[in-house]
Amino acid sequence: MSDRPMDVGWLRIFDAVARLGSLTRAGQELGLSQPAVTYQIRRIEEQLGVTLFHRSQEGSRLTEAGETLHRAVHSGLERIDEAARDIRRRVRAPAIRLFTDYGFAALWLMPRVADFRRLHPQVEVHIIASQSLTDELDGDADAAVLFGCRDDFQDDALLLMPERVVPVCTPGFLSRFGPFDGPAALASAPLLHLETAGEPRWLTWKTWLSTHGVTREPTQGDLGLNTYGFVIQAALAEQGIALGWIGLVDQFLAAGNLVAIAPEVERKDSGYWVVSRRPASGPAKALTDWLVGKP
What we know:
Arc Repressor Mutant, subunit A, D-Maltodextrin-Binding Protein, domain 2, two-stranded antiparallel ribbon, 11 strands
């Protein structure tokens, strides 16, 4: 068996077969015919002098030698792909990809981002919104504005907006269902809930009420919505009472579209944090500095 360096043009083909467990599905993913994939796998096995896959009607399963090779190949491809992304970021026109959630993007960022674009007209800004709390700086994002506590983020994360929450509704809803004499009175009104998968990082109606000694679970007449923008739209449509995050609902309070109807609750170690990819590019640092300094 020769010790000469191997031809590495087959890396993605081998990785695809190993991941998918099928020559046919690997070919479909790569835009190759099944015979072409089979030929390349046989060539690899000939070069190494070992069998890399157990083949059966159920598919292709890695042998012990195949698993050893796949660990190295898959890790190498991930590093190559990451290097390629870094190179593309550097050679293209200055661009920033900012990840955040739908509520922050719609209610805080979009009304203000035009100011940054006026200050930095040469920089292309891409805003990626998601309700997921786990994406964070995955993929090509240069920076993120994420909700959570201090311990949820890296040490150099910057607090943009502490969590300050007040119940809000429209003046019309208040005239029909109010007045509400303290937090306990809200428990009998229709409440609007921001739903999320897993344990929420933000205050919910249950936790807001519990700070005032009131116990209540979602009940008939309440409305659950999966983005904060929908929650606010439902409140404006007089569907119930929403929890209003100061910083996101300020424009509606200032215009009188919504009114605060109960005491504010603040959690100083919680809120929206600015998180940057390390090392931060010049345009990304300009954006994060602008975010933190923006009222």
